[in-house]
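User: Please predict structures.

Assistant: First:
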Amino acid sequence: MQKKGTILLILYCLIALLPSGVAYLSWVSTKSFMYELGRNIAFVALMIIALQFFLASRLHEIESPFGFDVVIRFHRYMGIFATVLLLCHPLLLAVGGHGWHLIYGLQLPWFIWFGKVALLLLVVNILLSLYQTTLSVKFERWRLIHDILGPTILILIFFHSWFAGNDLRLDIMKILWIIIFGFTLAVYMFHRFIRPKLLKNNPYRVSDVKTEADDVWTIKLKPADGSSVFNYAPGQFQFITFYRDRQLPVEEHHWTISSSPAQKNYISSTIKALGDFTSTIGQTRVGDTASVQGPFGRFSYLYHPEEKNLVFLAGGIGITPLMSMLRHMRDTKSNHMVVLIYGNEDEHQIIFREELSQIETEGYPKLNVFHVLHKPPAKWTGETGYIDKEKIQKFGGEKLHEKIFYVCGPPPMVGSIIKSLKQLGVPDRQIRMEVFSFLD
């Protein structure tokens, strides 16, 4: 996977530089250095914007070497980088001899205005993505705006670049431009319309709805045609769109897979009511259908088969990917040694408590479970407070710097635990985590 990831990164850089390379080899410009710099950074920015559609399209060949959380954050940072380049583009052209009327003038060709509008929409798109939570824009509304602005910006950029200057005077550049923008729009159409339709036509069916704890349910899904579920690694996640009628909302959300991949006839996600949509999960019924797309992510012990001494640190619903791993270890009679330190607000919020105890008793894997409650009941004899440096030292065992730590839970808890682990001398390479909130 590391080799494949390196190849993809090199390919990304080559594609981003492709138009500039073709333009350079095709003619020798007599323009000033600043003008040429402004033109070439625009070429690079346009290619980055085109590649954004590929990064966000959940293509397995792109996602699998890195994990979806890494890919989507790279997508975000490259979007910011492309915007900065395009903000510099007109300034450099003006300095390079094109004239400052390009910046403030009103009597400009229509294709220049297309470029200005595209740049404005790009800035709006970036700001909405960066400050979605601050602006109290709900995720589904943000996603709709993002999905409208993306192709709109791409089309405006295409016409601007096609007619502005002499950059596309050569047939080879025109052909390259048509291929780039045509293929990019095709990927967008596949991701947003064609694939969702195909998934809906091959649905999964809800076979069980189980209450796990306060406002937490496990939804078990089976392929409607009776086939086996897709292959996945324990700890990965999936995108689900429920179709439940009864005037319940139809939205796509990502949830961790909590079942074991050793179970081939069903797949399950354990979901906590954390918002408007998830508060309706308890109304899901057996027989409802869903579109399921997966798997995604690299948060799994199977990607590191040589590591046998593990410490799982979980908070609340963050137990789900770790539970999938523990179930898989149980099903495969694994000899891993695992310490689970599991934090919750109170006793009623502990998820999978009985099953964890049963796995601990059976001995596959060699599991030791320690519960930590912030608000324990009067008769509680276990640990209290939060998962901190002292509790990790107490329960993690000797030679912490030699163990592998899997951390999953609310972002503040994860941040605090990572800080504690570093204070204890645990190297970054031995800390595994995955960020499930893609707009953070």
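Second:
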Amino acid sequence: MSIIENKQLDPKLVENVDIDIQPTKKRILGPTSYTASFMGGCVSIGTFSTGAALIGVLTVPQAIIAMAIGCLVIAIALALIGECGHEYGIPFVVQLRSSFGNTGVKIPGILRGLPAIVWFGFQSWVGAGAINSCFKILFGFDNLPVVFALFTILQVVLAINGFEGIKWLENISCIFILVILVYMLFIVKTKFAAELDNAFAGIEGTWGLPFWAATTSFLGIYATMIINASDYARNATADIKIPKATSLYTMAILPVTVFMGLIGFLVSTATGNSDPVVVFSETMGSKSLTVVTLLFIAFAQVSTNVLNNIVPPSYILMESFKVNWKLATVIVGVLSIVVMPWKLVTADSAGGLDGFIHFYSAFLGPIFAVMVIDYYVLRKRKLDINMFYDLKGDFKGINWAGVIAIIIGAIVAYIFLSVSWYASLIPAGLSYYLLMKYLPAAEPFRKGTIFEK
């Protein structure tokens, strides 16, 4: 049978729906701004730590290739998931309704939101540490808890302005970020040349499972961002289709991730410390250069947190608890403190973060697979937008096909935890396809798919 496409939304279906959850009418991010937003949004302190986790496992060329492969997979995955939001203007939490149901979206929503909140808290604590170090150098002021609280409030206030605020923040930050990253890499190579030569002298590296586990680690940093790609893509101008989007994502994510991962890898190898704030505070040799570098680390956390770690859980709170955008961002800020990020920033945080990434990737890979099968295979990219906003329609309740597929994919992922994201894709995607075809409880969700009778 033919699959019907309808982009015209019945206004009655969204009379009591927050404007931010409705299909967007304003596309504010052109190719340059869109690239800049992801370039700024990908400067994650977690990338330093993930690079540090490769010590003794890979050579420098192997580490660079592993980072590059991870980034290319990310770019393709972002383009695939984001196409729905770009085409229909709907956010992640609405896109999920066809594969998980109006009630069931809370399950993938929580699985996406919790890692974002943890990352928000972790990166805010590191950024606040950088600012506190600057205050200590310049003014003798030293009170990290106060700086952390104020820094968290600043990011929430910036996020309240929505994508208008995010656009100017990322546009300003991207050039500054690239220049400082090149400089930081130069400092590492010159300051620790002898230590690095000695450290890498006996490392043979591998192209086996540890190599692919490394690609999973770098991919996993952005696994959260992948599944809510529609939240970003729906703000992009009409010309940013899948091929162009893939190119823009690659141009934004690849250089930043490779630079940051390599810096973390080299710094930790040379010094034994994976905390860039401590390393660059102690090794710059110039007060002004130290301050500039530390401010970059702090600024980078703002650009990343606002785009990647505040927006997605805020949308989830809006969808699940019917709160407005401002209140949702405030709640996310509070929760980022509740997770006690100071417990995460420890001497062995690199290993802990790597395990954390593989853990949540085991769930996010299956969600990605379900979304791809639902949109591209079952619905052939043709949606009746009214079905997604009709809370009493066919998508009401829980689509158990999507939920069971996540569980199956996650089980397989945990068997192969080091490559969890990759391992989960086929089991989750195939399970979802078969469950949508044969599971009686999935009958209402077959409307608009190739299985509709």
